[in-house]
Amino acid sequence: MCAAGNMCIRYLFFFVFTQAGFFLPLSGGIDSSSTASLVGSMCDLVWEAYQNGSDSVARDLREILQLADNEPLPESSKHICRAIFSTCYMATVNSSNATKLRAKTLAEQIGSNHIEVKIDDSVSAAMNIFTASTGLTPKFKVHGGSQTENLALQNVQARQRMVLGYLYAQLLPWTQGKKGSLLVLGSANVDESLRGYLTKYDCSSADINPIGGISKTDLRSFCRYMSQKYPELQNILKAPPTAELEPITSSYVQTDEEDMGMKYSELQVFGKLRKEQGCGPFAMFCKLIHIWGDKMSPEEISCKVKSFFRGYSINRHKATVITPAYHAESYSPDDNRFDLRPFLYNVQWAWQFAAIDQKVHILTHGGSKPLEVSNSKSGSVKPSAPQIVHEKVIKNDDVVDTPTHYATAFHTAIGTPSLYPTLSNNSQTSQDCQINDKSLEVSHKRHSTSGSGFEGSKKARMDSTPTKVQKSQSWFSQLLRK
Known about the structure:
alpha/beta
């Protein structure tokens, strides 16, 4: 992580030559604090090089800081930081004093030019326009509003921060008598980008994102290391990650992991299996049975896999506008640069989820009797779900139960994949394994879309929906030869 951090620092240093500095919306959370710490570290390295007598660094500093030949150079790394780095805490009525204080303290320790603003007037102005045109006033769910209202009220706050962030980035140098504008820094980690746990065109939209390819787990390690230099990071690490976009009540406090329905550590596992090992829903489930089987039941694993893939596919369109990032993970979802998978998916994952349910049924009840499924268009009950015969296959140094025959029995029962089968009501698995749909819709970090695309990666064909029985049988023959 330290090596990756140094590369991030050089990455930032390269970009600072083209602008007057950097602007960062600093929320007081781990992600934005990590980005701020990287800029602070960059200033420390520049100051160290200048102290060692580097003439080129001195010339570069004078150029970057727009200093005349007779003006003195900065006297410390904090002076450098204050000249090129502005941070801003954008508070709403839902923001807490705790995050405000953490952001302020960290900014002081780093040395940034820190600003605190309230954006409630901006948010209210946007909502007043909507109310004036429709005659309706949306409410948060804690005030009796629907999930749709709750989501919209969170997203408008997040997007106002992006608009105001770019306004400050353009005009702050002007207020200081400098030329140019500031580069806006993003702070969405790779796990959130993979899951789509971010608002499209909020503060995740920026010019560059130094942590866009780094997982939350590694960012926590980085913050622990950097806390030797910036002690406030210790307090930031202790606080649960939260967006602070919903009202806090005596019975409800918004947190990221509660919104997502999964832990950040689990997201990292999902990301590695999806990208590095080419797993779709069923292949991932089979691997996780071996990885998590000692601490979770098959039903729990099934629910988490389904929730992840539904969230991933619903939010995949966000990857098409994701902020360019430094890449430190091999499972980055950065579309059109490092991840060329489609961004329109059939979010039902009907064939794959039915195969998972069949596997859960076998693991929990024994035997291989197929589950009944229903046709979602006609409501009729079909005789059987996919037949699964298991064979031990060694792949990627792991022994995994993989199916040797699905398609014939499945398409005999279902017909075409477009019918989207679901388990019948008398299925125990269907009753017990409820996907956390709330986690797919809640908060500033959701958007839904529809599509009919499937996994495009050759490695992920294990979970692609076959369109013909013959094609599916041919594919499984190829699988057995691997």
